[in-house]
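Exercise 3.2. Students should predict the tertiary structure of the chain below and write it as structure tokens, then compare their answer with the key that follows.

Predict this chain's 3D structure.
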Amino acid sequence: MTNYQWQTIGLGTLAGFRSMTAPALLSSNLLGYHPSTLAGSPLRYLQKPWVAQGLKLLAAVEMVGDKLPQMPDRIAPTALLGRAASGALVGAAIFRINHDKALNGAVLGVLAAVAGSYLSFFMRKQATIESGLPGGLVGGFEDLLTVGSGLALTKGTDVGKPQPRAWNL
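Answer key:
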């Protein structure tokens, strides 16, 4: 597997944990790169500072809202759909940047996001039961894990930077 495929799996999985965190981190990283492959594409907006700031705000609001008792489970159909869409967005962008088919990246991102949604749902539920801590506190630890993992995946790496093309001889 290529580096950008692993990046898609990683950020797609994080989209399953927190739907807005993955696009926010990717968009922030894209501020340093301006790949020509996004030109003319709706995905080019991920490179705009106002989009990056807006996604960060949405990610923060999501983290707060996640702790509210009336919020549906992340594996409820509408919530899962939003997480899948987030995974598709990051996957399509990363693949397009790397001269690959955006549709392939979107599919990989969706699969990773759905898997991440179920994984994080059951991990959080089990952690809450076993620790005896309130769900909101466990959710706060989940936020730290998500942001920390996302920063490790994006900061100081080349997520969003086109990979060199390989020669097929």
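Discussion points: The chain has a mean pLDDT of 90. Residues 85 and 141 are 24 Å apart (CA to CA).
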